[in-house]
Write a structure and sequence with these properties.
The complex is a heterodimer of chains A (99) and B (436).
Chain A: H1 11-21, H2 23-46, H3 54-61, H4 65-77, E1 81-87, E2 90-95
Antiparallel strand pairs in A: 1-2
Chain B: E1 3-11, H1 15-26, E2 31-34, E3 49-50, E4 55-56, H2 57-70, E5 74-77, E6 80-88, E7 91-98, H3 113-117, E8 121-124, E9 131-134, E10 136-137, E11 149-150, H4 160-164, E12 177-188, E13 192-194, E14 211-212, H5 214-221, E15 241-248, H6 264-278, E16 283-288, H7 298-307, E17 311-314, E18 316-322, E19 328-334, E20 339-344, E21 347-352, E22 354-356, E23 390-392, H8 402-424, E24 425-429, E25 432-435
Parallel strand pairs in B: 1-2, 1-12, 2-5, 12-23, 14-21, 15-16, 15-21, 16-17
Antiparallel strand pairs in B: 3-4, 6-7, 7-12, 8-9, 10-11, 13-22, 18-19, 19-20, 24-25
The chains are: A alpha+beta (99), B alpha/beta (436).
The structure holds flavin-adenine dinucleotide and iron/sulfur cluster (2 copies).
Chain lengths: 99, 436
């Protein structure tokens, strides 16, 4: 692996420069983070007591089912949500026990 | 500027590039393998199982990935882009840009603590956008090398990863670095991309949530896939009726892609068999113009799928629309019966074709009529390009499956080896030859 060049600027100066260069994407990502936190809170609240399907959660939260599935897949990957049986053709999702 | 000298530069670390690098390395040549992504493996490492044996794809690919990383004769450069190729005929100077990972590759242990700490979740390109990972992550579980990469476009610059990293590997001071590789030969193994799903308006132009591309289905069928099972992405339903639309993006004059992509019939048959295993109640229908099963054991594979109950329907799919609940409706002209029918499915997979992945111009190569590398004497030496000393392996030369990618990779290695020898021969005395 080629050692990547490190800039002669200090870490602080470099972060400042990165913030200036990537101001737009940082701002966009901050908005995205706020949205992700809100959705996470709402989804977790919705399935804390009772396991639900993607369409049920989507209807309850007024979201697109495809977006709900994307979030659930991510929560599942990082251990926040577990699958718990099926309701017809749809898997049910429930908030994982707090560790 | 850092400069290294090798006998062969292999560009692209998919199955073809890895095989070429290993063959040349095993023969004692110094090899540089340059891959633009943070891990080697190419498309193959994203597949579930392979036709016609249904072997686990990762079981075949990961040993090769690890072999290229540990081979004493191979220098592996990941997350690097070839910028320019200068020189000719056995004396090439290739300028390569190492993109910043913002992680010190020499000390990162791949522990993933940064990934677990990073607050932002982004669509995982490894899962074709349907799964997720964090802005800093080890690209996927079997990635080689197991080194984190930070996506600056999604980074909040919050520094959490930097704080949590036990070895202090996160490094915001990295910048792109250009280095040069002097080489006697080059093997182009830059692979393919699938035909653009948005190009075909009649099939929904990529806007129908339950009409997917076949690499998505590969991820659903893989144990490490985004949902851990087969679900339709529109609403998380376990599909019961699934249709495949063959030649969706191949043999299609309206798209300017007139050739057969040679793998789609076989991967559709493979996926339909795997779906039958994963979802025993599922009914799979394959709409085809004609089924092309040309390889060793392929026709038997097709017959097995039929025997398993996969429905093969000869017809030309005219359009795909969706109903109010986003169920895809396939309108198909049944060519043998001469009538048009509409059928509704839970999920539709478009058997997309193959097009060239990376432009050839920077390698000084001409595309052939099909867009892939031009092979001027395809019958006699299908590895030779228009530029002496530059060879082609795998799907950079045209659509092909893994078997043929490996065959052409070994052929390209062999041709490159002969070429290197011819260039480094030093005549000692007349009639006597030594290799240096
Ligand atoms: C859905 C699907 C299922 C399939 N299933 C099967 C199957 O079961 N069996 C089978 O035999 N075949 C199958 N195939 C075909 C198989 O995927 C290909 O034959 C094989 O992956 C081709 O390998 P490759 O190395 O030529 O290309 P790729 O896998 O595309 O690898 C090319 C590599 O080069 C890198 N690269 C590109 N440009 C550059 C650059 N400029 N600089 C540096 N690196 C670069 C890429 O990042 C990539 O890692 C399937 C294909 C599809 C689409
Ligand atoms: S600095 Fe960027 S990559 Fe690191 S934790 Fe924060 S958002 Fe994630
Ligand atoms: S950057 Fe640090 S925390 Fe992240 S994987 Fe590497 S060693 Fe672990």
């Amino acid at each position: 692996m080629m050692p990547t060049e490190t800039s002669s600027l200090s870490r602080g100066e470099m972060l400042k420069r990165l913030r200036a260069e990537h101001g737009e994407s940082v701002e966009r990502t901050q908005q995205l983070l706020r949205e992700q936190k809100r959705v996470q809170q709402e989804v977790c609240k919705s399935i804390r007591e009772k396991a639900k399907t993607v369409p049920e959660i989507a209807e309850e939260l007024g979201m697109k089912p495809a977006d709900v599935l994307w979030y659930l897949a991510s929560f599942r990957k990082y251990g926040l949500v577990v699958e718990e049986g099926m309701c017809g053709d749809y898997p049910l999702y429930r908030k994982a026990e707090e560790k | 500027m850092t400069k290294i000298h090798v006998d062969a530069l292999v560009v692209g670390g998919g199955i073809a590039g890895m095989q070429t690098a290993l063959d040349l390395g095993d023969q004692g040549y110094q090899v540089a393998l340059v891959e633009k992504e943070p891990s080697v493996g190419g498309k193959m490492i994203t597949l579930s199982k392979v036709f016609p044996t249904l072997d686990c794809c990762s079981c075949i690919t990961t040993p090769k990935m690890s072999a290229v990383a540990h081979h004493p004769k191979i220098q592996l450069f990941t997350y690097c882009e070839v910028d320019r190729v200068d020189g000719q005929d056995g004396e090439f100077t290739v300028s390569v840009v190492q993109k910043p990972r913002y992680v010190n590759a020499d000390i990162c242990t791949g522990c993933r603590l940064c990934e677990y700490e990073c607050p932002i979740t982004v669509p995982s390109m490894f899962d074709r956008g349907l799964g997720s990972y964090h802005a800093v992550r080890v690209p996927f579980s079997t990635a080689v090398p197991q080194i984190a990469v930070l996506d600056i476009e999604y980074c909040l610059l919050c520094g959490k990863c930097e704080k949590v990293c036990p070895v202090g590997a996160v490094d915001f001071t990295q910048t792109p670095e250009t280095f040069e590789i002097d080489t006697t030969s080059i093997v182009l193994a830059t692979g393919f991309e699938m035909t653009d799903v948005s190009a075909k308006k009649e099939y929904g132009a990529g806007r129908l949530s339950n009409v997917i591309d076949p690499l998505m289905m590969e991820r659903f069928l893989a144990p490490t896939g985004p949902y851990g099972r087969v679900l339709r992405p529109g609403d998380g339903m376990e599909p019961t009726t699934i249709a495949y639309v063959q030649c969706a993006g191949s043999r299609d004059e309206t798209l300017g892609i007139e050739y057969c992509s040679r793998t789609c019939c076989m991967y559709a048959i493979k996926q339909s068999m795997l779906i039958s295993g994963a979802l025993p109640l599922a009914e799979v229908t394959i709409f085809y113009m004609d089924i092309r099963t040309f390889g060793k054991g392929y026709e038997q594979f097709y017959q097995n799928a039929k025997a398993m109950g996969v429905e093969f329907v000869r017809g030309k799919v005219a359009s795909i629309q969706e109903d109010e609940n986003h169920y895809p409706i396939v309108r198909v002209e049944l060519t043998e019966e001469g009538r048009v029918v509409e059928r509704t499915f839970d999920l539709v997979v478009l058997s997309l074709g193959m097009v060239l992945g990376d432009p050839l111009a920077r390698f000084g190569l001409q595309p052939a009529e099909d867009g892939f590398a031009s092979l001027p004497s395809v019958n006699a030496s299908p590895w030779a390009t228009t530029r002496p000393g530059v060879f082609v392996a795998g799907t950079a030369g045209g659509p092909m499956d893994i078997v043929d990618s490996i065959v052409t990779a070994s052929a390209a290695a062999s041709a490159a080896s002969a070429y290197i020898r011819s260039k480094t021969q030093v005549s000692i005395e007349e009639g006597e030859v030594a290799y240096v």
